[in-house]
Amino acid sequence: MKRPTIADIARRAGVSKGAVSYALNGQPGVSEATRQRIVAIAQEIGFNPNSAARALSGASARAVGLTLARPARILSIEPFFMGLISGFEAELAARSYALTLQVVATPEQEIEVYRRWWGERRIDGVIVTDLRENDVRIPVLQQLQLPAVVIGGPGDTGKIAQVWSDDAGAITETVRYLVALGHRRIARVGGLPDLLHTQTRTRAFEEVCTALGLNEAVTMPSDYTGEEGGRATRRLLIGADRPTAVIYDNDVMAVAGLAVAQEMGLAVPGDLSIVAWDDSPLCSLVHPPLTALSRDIAEYGAHAARELLAAIDGKQVSNVEAGTAHLTPRGSTAPPR
Amino acid sequence: MKRPTIADIARRAGVSKGAVSYALNGQPGVSEATRQRIVAIAQEIGFNPNSAARALSGASARAVGLTLARPARILSIEPFFMGLISGFEAELAARSYALTLQVVATPEQEIEVYRRWWGERRIDGVIVTDLRENDVRIPVLQQLQLPAVVIGGPGDTGKIAQVWSDDAGAITETVRYLVALGHRRIARVGGLPDLLHTQTRTRAFEEVCTALGLNEAVTMPSDYTGEEGGRATRRLLIGADRPTAVIYDNDVMAVAGLAVAQEMGLAVPGDLSIVAWDDSPLCSLVHPPLTALSRDIAEYGAHAARELLAAIDGKQVSNVEAGTAHLTPRGSTAPPR
DNA sequence: AGAATTTACTGAACCGGATAAGTTGTGGAG
DNA sequence: CTCCACAACTTATCCGGTTCAGTAAATTCT
């Protein structure tokens, strides 16, 4: 099926290509009557501007990129990314930007994808997740002058905009809550240790534990998978001084931890309190429902998308804090026996 | 940063633009020596062909589209789509096709997205999920002559290729297994009732129950969410003749069902056996781990991607059956007390 | 009324590749 | 030694938009 072009519209309206372009883009240079006639014809024949032609003549590609840097087996169950994607979409669709996705295995591969996308002019900007210390992606983005927004900080990203949430505050609130319930031995199962926000959380966890006079602040490193989360939980629970409360860096590990506790005959929350970071429907699904650090991930993503679009428009964007998690108590936390 | 074009390469190599194009695309018309020289220069300056220019001059957009037609709150937790995306990606990336994503609310909106994508020449083909009876999207795809592969059949899609799995066989196997364990009252919590594969499952469920002489084959319609799955379970379990086994159309509802059973003081699998359709890590995470109908969703997605790429290349593709689920028994099924 | 400005257009160049058609230079056949 | 075929290019055109430089007519200004 031949797709209509502005030349077709021009012919039917009896004007030149240029006039059609001005009319459809709301540019001055055509009379209101002509504009309406042209718009009507475009509507009638179902015209959509060829994005390639548009991108080629200097305009933007009207697309942004997102890489997913987790193994497939984690991606499929980790609710975070899908939440993020939903949030992006809401913003992007409203301004008719497309979202281009690519699953990558390593940061190096991710850099290659950025280079290619940018070289191909396929995208106008990218959303970068999982900021690390001395992240290798940052200098590349700066060198390419590729508009970007980084999620997962705060960290050192130079001029590149960031959207981050106050993880330190959230974990402090959580520990205080558990201590108020009477817990003295609180452990944590952390996310990937080289991610910057994991480090932020670990540091804040240690600080608040020290401040409250708890003698230890054990963080078991993990990788966000259920299996690892379960293993870490088992290691924590077989010790002599087993903790009475565990904070998990994501919901998947928390659910796995709950299963391990039940399997070991420990009552939740009687023998063990559990707190999950990131509240997904998963947390309310299990029994008992999990106390969680909720934040609106979709809104977080929408916020990042807005910042990115602003950066693409050349506006100077700054670091913004958005969507800090707050504690949602449910059935998995109680005073220790 | 100025991005290099073939004109830059041509200048440095002392040849014409045309020669560069032939050299980089493996076309005849340049000597092997020149070709290597040109390729080396392209490598050195980090050349990537402008996808817009390429798409504009008749070639394909080298991108395919996927719409996600579920509310954000389901998408975030439903492992199916992410698994599918991972599978697509593996195939698409290998042939350097990009994946463009859009979240939509209704089939009508989905059609609009298809029209726009195709009109804009943004994509070369689409992957269509959630086939319905008399699906309104099919005639539009045919009219647009937009290459497509449909997942979620089998159903009537005319010339459009399909990739489907033998759901009827899987559910038959499951019911036979439960009956062999001694169950006589088996219920099911189904997915969205207007999806074709839900109907296939429902029909097959009824048939096998009749064939095995079970007096009823109750299917509670649901919508794949944990809340609805939990509610449906509760309705099933408060009846006088409550079932001793329940089959769920996805893992999220199965986990919710497990929580409801535990909350009502029923032992799983002692008082109630549970089978989940689609085995995600979620099923192994909970306690007891859920018996599930496993299939390799990523491979299913990869298969669909291969078929779509074949369709885009103009090859005649037929309906293929792929990735039929098989029963993976775990701790949630046992003979009834 | 005539000049200056504005309005409403047209025509053409341009973006960066792909590709058909034309132009050399070389070697082999006759 | 000439003619022809073919390899190895170059040149020019096209894809479908955007945008700039013109241009004729209408309007405003003095």
Automatic annotation (TrEMBL), chains A, B:
Cleavable signal peptide: none
Keyword check for DNA-binding: yes
CDD domains to which the protein is assigned, alphabetical: HTH_LacI, PBP1_LacI_sugar_binding-like
Protein name: LacI family transcriptional regulator
SMART domains named in the record: HTH_LACI (SM00354)
Domain HTH lacI-type, first and last residues per copy: 4-58
Tree of life domain: Bacteria
Gene3D superfamilies: 3.40.50.2300, lambda repressor-like DNA-binding domains
InterPro entries in UniProt: HTH_LacI, LacI/GalR-like_sensor, Lambda_DNA-bd_dom_sf, Peripla_BP_I
Keyword Transcription: yes
UniProt entry keywords in alphabetical sequence: DNA-binding, Transcription, Transcription regulation
